[in-house]
Design brief:
Largest sheet: 5 strands, antiparallel
Structural class: alpha+beta
Protein name: NlpC/P60 family protein
CATH class of one domain: Alpha Beta
Order of helices and strands: HEEEEEEEEEEEEEEEEHHHEEEEHE
Family: Belongs to the peptidase C40 family.
CATH architecture of one domain: Alpha-Beta Complex
Keywords: Hydrolase, Protease, Signal, Thiol protease
Organism: Cohnella fermenti
Oligomer: single chain
Radius of gyration: 21 Å
GO molecular function: cysteine-type peptidase activity
Amino acid sequence: MRRSLMIAVAASMLATAIPGAAGAAVKEGSAQIVSSVSFRTAPSTSSDVMRYLKKGETVAVLEETNAYWLKVRDSSGTVGYVSSREQYVNLTAAPTETADAAVGAANATIVASVNFRNAPSTSGDRIRYLAKGEQVTVTSQVNSYWYAVTDASGVSGYVSTSSSYIKLTGAIAGSGSANSGSGSSNSGTGSSNSDSGTGVSASAKIEAVIAAGMAYLGTPYEYGSDRSTTTTFDCSDFVRQAFKDALGVTLPADSSSQGAYVRGLSSVTTDWKQLKRGDLMFFMDYKGTSASLYTNKSAFGSSISHVAIYLGNGQVLHTYSKESGGVRVDSIEGRHWEYRFLYGGSAI
């Protein structure tokens, strides 16, 4: 449940808000503190700690600020921020927009019963089925295949853009025009490697991918993991799932093919310090912890055996062994990861 909520947060980074929505009424959520956690003045580890929330305390959740922080109010009425990690907080009810915010804003009609999902992906959890004839508000077009919508009760989610399921009856906020959705050939059953023309910035896509990946922190490692489930991952399966959850993009299934994909899509670098946040990093086989063991490596000749998402500041998000605890964040500088690095670049 918590993972699904975080994936939804990742997807929401791509959505364009309706003008005036900032003033919409929001129903507070709730959470219980699982273990002592810093209660901060801002959503950053560099912000001041007001106090420590204790195990067992209940707080009101005002918003999911991003994939890492919750804005909460304690029993004394003080508002601040806490980590959203499960080891600290159990989110018992997420904050939701109230029905009043959606009244009179409908700009689309459901043509045939369609899945209403919590993420723009067929792997997203189904909230419910939207029925034929329902009026909904399309708040943005996430990519060529998914709309972000709000139903009449104020619940937000995602539906296929296929004209077989939904018909726009008014303009999407910020788009300046209405269309029938006929430009999409998707039936809600697949994914695409293109979301051109949607106006979504590259940085927003990158943050969405990273947030989607962070949602799987701690997921167990399994070599050759099943690509149709998210119960375990190997390195390439994990990266593939993060892109699929966040963008609806299906990358190749193995790290070597992903490397070839990135090389064909963008320029790459063999200097990891030149990488940008969100770039994919490709590594050769592990030979040991000494740099001297990798002096004969060939950036484009050595076989790729591992892939990771670069977070910036010398950190990567990846998974590589059962013993390491599954999906995790690691520093690479001065370690075998730095010595094994072959090249990296953008998959967006």
